[in-house]
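User: What would this chain look like folded?
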Amino acid sequence: MMVTHNFVPLHAHFLPFDVQSTMNNTTSNTTDVSPMLKIPRRTLSLTAKLAICKEATVQVSSSGSGIRSTARRYDVQPSQIRRWMKSFASLDDVSPDDDSSRAIKRNKSSKCTRLIGAGRKSCFPEATLVCLRKFLDEKRSDDFSVSARMLMAEVRRVDPVSCCFLKPDAFRNRIHRLLRNWDISWRRATHTAQKTRLCDGMIADFQSMVKEKIAMMSIPLSNVYNVDQTNCYYSMEARFTLAKRGSKTVSVKGANSSSRCTIMLGASASGEKLLPYIVFKGTKDGRISQEITQQQREGYPDEVVLAVQENAWFDEDVMLHWIDTCWKKHTMEKDDKQMYYLLLDSFSVHKTSKVREAFSRCNTEIDYVPEGYTSRLQVMDVGDNKPFKGDIRKESDEWLVVNS
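Assistant: Here's the prediction, encoded as structure tokens.
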């Protein structure tokens, strides 16, 4: 005798009305259901699976038959819940720094339900895998290029038995499968402007040194300064624009000019700002130099100091001019008898003997940020230059709207 259940699966609520009625009225004669009916597959996120397993565990401890009732409630098979519980139990002792733990966190925010590294186990012995991963990590730590062919050659060297009977294509596929399991992909080398590997100990030591020196010399925070140069292009080229979604070609017109000036910005630890110092491209007796002199400075604000250089760069002469017109003037207006502390980056111009002597005559103690650490220790580079350029772009956009 066949018993008819009135239970309707969750996915039935998402089907058309006539199909729902067909499923609800189905009896022992199942030939009335259209053979073309396809129930859409559902995917559950890792968070949903974990919640289902927790609820099933609570139901089992309370009533003893929680897996089946939980499976009926969420329209899944009891065997699926048991398999999920077994997988989660094997991950209880994974440390937060483990690769598998990072894979779980990454999948929680996506629709993917498959754990990275949860596929078929590698065919290579464990000792071979350890040697292969050590080889890869050592090469990449020294910034050497590593390819799949190099890994294949390393396997042949350390464990020739495991690959002697493999065809080249099968061997290569095993290496690629292993790399996917390790979450490693083939990447294009990026343009490197500064060091990317920073030592936390060196950062802490430098910060402690600066604080101890300031305290030892009894320098108030209002006399602690940091300055930095930054480029400012005349043509603020836009790399993004509003366009219709799906457009195959998005073109942007621009001046395509690399003309620029260099700006020196500085501020104290108490928030007091130095006068901006702008270097334009030009010669000492040229048209631009004559235009920015005091006699012909009409239209230029008085709150900035202007200078020229052949390439709009900061060289030793420009740096000495900045010390005389900005730094020395600022310290004399405050108190020329007090001691000042100035933090600079490791630009070679800042370290010349003439520049150091000019700072010493202004009662200024200077220190240099270690090379490659400006992104962590240069205050002006991190907290001022980017907002400054953002304000310039804002003014440029408003000018284009008004004058276009």
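The radius of gyration is 34 Å. If you want, I can go into more detail on any region.
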